Amino acid sequence: MRSLARLLALAFAIAIGLLSGCTKDVSRNIYEGARQHNESLKGTPLENPRAESVSRDEYEKALRGDSGR
Fold first, then answer.
1. Under a CB-based contact definition with an 8 Å cutoff, are residues 28 and 21 in contact?
2. Does some domain include residue 69?
3. pLDDT digit string (tens) for 16-40?
4. Are 68 and 61 in contact (CB under 8 A)?
5. Tens digit of pLDDT for each residue in 34-67?
6. CB–CB of 52/45 below 8 Å?
7. What proportion of the chain, given as a percentage, has pLDDT over 70?
8. Can you list the alpha helix ranges (DSSP code H) found in 1-69?
9. Left, alpha or beta for 65 (phi > 0: left; psi -120 to 50: alpha)?
């Protein structure tokens, strides 16, 4: 009887250890997947041209070739 109780306790402890190890990887994978998804939603500068555009005055100054002298 005692050996059976010890065996069950050992099996339970091993099962808990395995489950906690698996959930650590699953939660990390969910986090990384969500982070990658959020990064992909931001887009590239070509997809979002207004993200880093210059003002109209700076654009015209560059077209004229003024160096600001």
1. no
2. no
3. 877 776 666 777 788 888 888 888 8
4. yes
5. 888 888 877 666 666 555 667 788 888 888 886 5
6. yes
7. 70
8. 2-42, 56-64
9. left
When divided into structural domains, the chain yields a total of: 1
Indicate whether 48 belongs to any domain: yes
Q: Give the structural domain span for 9.
A: 2-64
Place of tokens 């210059």: 54
pTM: 0.34
| pLDDT at residue 52, as a whole number | 63
**Which distant-in-sequence residues (6+ apart) come within 8 Å of 51 by Cβ?**
45
Task: Judge whether 18 and 12 are in contact, CB under 8 Å.
Answer: no
